[in-house]
Predict the 3D structure of the following.
Amino acid sequence: MSSAAADGLSTAQYIAQERFRRVCPTNNVSYCDVGVPDSAHVLVLLAGSAMDCVLSGVLFEDFCRNNGLRMISVDKPGMGKTPACPIAERLASHADAIETVLTHLKVQPSVLVSISVGFLYSLNLLARKPHLFEGRVPALFSLTPWISFEDAPSLSIASWSPNWMVAAVPWFIATFAPPKLLSAFSWSSGVSTAVSSSIGFGKSEEDAERVGISNSNRDRVFHALNGAVQNKGMADEYLLCLQRGPPGLWGFKDYSEILGQIAELYPRTVLRLYMGDKDVLVPRAAQTRFIAFFDPSLSTLLPEVREKFDFAEKTFPGGGHEDVATFARCWEDISRYVHDHVSSQ
């Protein structure tokens, strides 16, 4: 029985509960706060482009509650109730918003979890807000990280499309796409296709590792997804993914630069990547280029930078950009790390 049914709530009533969309009184930014309210094990989720705090909360609430975790996810500019901002200020604005919300809640992140384009936001957060991790080893678990789009044949048309056409995609989704096709267009959320295809919500016949992380019923997930794709901020999310904006839109010149900045700030940073070898948005060529930064025989990073990272990656055979973020292995690793390491720091 779903939580909604058990509580005697309709899908709409369940989605409307305050924990899925609170508003911070100091900056009017919206966020979800789900799982175990008083838990010291705090996950800060930096979500994919087609995800707002309601969808994030609905997807991962059950796992967090069942594993003694608290998850906070702050809406990016133009998503939910969060005010919009110029695209050039998007990454900096979101880092400021997360800082303000965590200060308001009087909590410190135990670990960062990113999905898809949330990877770019999380790297910028680490580089811009080191005081958030004072006294702790910062840890980032990145699921289907949006490393690069340049190797993706599936994005060749989008890469050459004018900005107005890219920015119009969210309007097209909200206006014309029936619920069962929403996920096909929400191409960088990192989870939405998994919702519609059942991958990630139960064992897949193809791969026993594809195990759901939530018992949420389809109706409430689709309800949340339908609301997420209507956020006006999605247009800027798509432009950001394709680097359509002023120079430095991603907050760094290249990965060597941002990794070097992070290495200067922290004695040690835990970095875990979870990817699928069938990812059509961030293909294996892009994944292996990033992994090579941490291979001493291939790396272009200075040794003193590379050695500051505790790096590991897991590649799921047959996994794609649309489903890895719902694989139980990823979330079980996150929970295990938090319980094993954070309490002792």
Observations:
- The chain has 16 helices and eight strands.
- The radius of gyration is 19 Å.
- Confidence is low (pLDDT under 50) at residues 171-190, 192-216.
- The longest strand covers residues 269-276.
